[in-house]
Amino acid sequence: MTFRQTGQYIGAKDNAILFMHGFGMNHHQIDHLIGPGRPLDSDKYFIICVDERGNTQTSFEHSTSPTNSGLKMKFPLYNARDRVKAEHLVVTRALEIPHLLAVTGISAGARDSLQFAVSYPEFMDGVVPTVGGAQLTTQAFFFGSLMGSLLESCDGWQGGSYEQNPAQCAANGLSVLFPYFYTRDWWKQHVDTPEAYTKWRNAWGDYYLDIQNARDLCYRLASVGRSWVGDTPGFNGDLHAVLGSIKARTLYIVSPQDQFFPPDYIEAEAKAIPNARAVWIDSEAGHLICCNADPQATWALRQELEEFLEQLTARGKPAK
């Protein structure tokens, strides 16, 4: 597992923020939000960005991935709660931090941030699930099934026991998600010529599509169906009760045009959490309001995140 920290402890180590990245991404996903004067201000906060257990990208040496562990398809299956537990151990044991100011995550990382708040309800003051929530649509499960089929039927897969990574298999599998990352209007405006597509594809290739290990991606995909927030032990499968157990202040930052996490899902979740609200950033970027696809959406996201963190910090200060 790879992680990095930015900034420094302040006072009683009460200024730490944990970030969890999206599906197939890495710990650099929100670099545009980190640094002096930005919402995750490294002059104010101690920022922890972790590559999740089983991370799929080939850009880093992930000791907890099936491939880099040397176990290949003998690597044990894992689920979302395993990932969250591993990140809790990084924070508490490796960094010796007893409490977090906030936990945040993007997309799949947003789901994990909610799981973190359920599994460790006293461990953080705030939670910021961004472009994501506890529930996936049935459409998303269809994409997952199609992605898995593309991976496992691809030349070079060899039952997952290959020696040389069939990177194209992984790229083909992930490609089924992209039409739904943005809205149709975004595609029409920004990828309207063959040249524009080539530029877009090359950028995403370097950033995401062409740097995946197919075996690790298959394991990560399988983890989606092996657990979710709603089947957390002790709640009898009642999502309302699960979310009702969250004690941290919760801020959803979401888009009404997100095709993976629709508004009615998010609204129901926010109502179930005792101290939660949702902020809507309407943008043709859809699911990718998180990631600089729309400068105005990025500005709005920064404002909401900065204000929420300042409120958390103020609550923790003793009255004068």
How would you summarize the topology of this molecule?
Elements: E1 3-6, E2 16-20, E3 46-50, H1 80-94, E4 100-106, H2 108-119, E5 124-130, H3 138-152, H4 167-174, H5 184-190, H6 194-209, H7 214-224, H8 239-244, E6 249-254, H9 263-272, E7 276-280, H10 295-316
Parallel strand pairs: 2-3, 2-4, 4-5, 5-6, 6-7
Antiparallel strand pairs: 1-3
Protein model, in words:
The protein is α/β, with parallel strands linked by helices and 320 residues long. It has helices at residues 80-94, 108-119, 138-152, 167-174, 184-190, 194-209, 214-224, 239-244, 263-272, 295-316, and strands spanning 3-6, 16-20, 46-50, 100-106, 124-130, 249-254, 276-280. The protein folds into two domains: 3-137 and 227-316, Alpha/Beta hydrolase fold, catalytic domain (Rossmann fold, 3-Layer(aba) Sandwich), CATH 3.40.50; 140-222, no CATH class. It contains ten helices and seven strands. It has a seven-stranded mixed beta sheet, with helices on both faces. It is globular and about 55 Å long.
- The parts where pLDDT drops under 50 for at least 5 residues are none
Strand count, sense and barrel status of the largest sheet are: 7 strands, mixed
Identify the CATH homologous superfamily of the largest domain.
Alpha/Beta hydrolase fold, catalytic domain
Tally of helical runs: 10
Structural class: alpha/beta
The end-to-end span amounts to 42 Å
Number of domains: 2
Q: Look up the CATH topology of the largest domain.
A: Rossmann fold
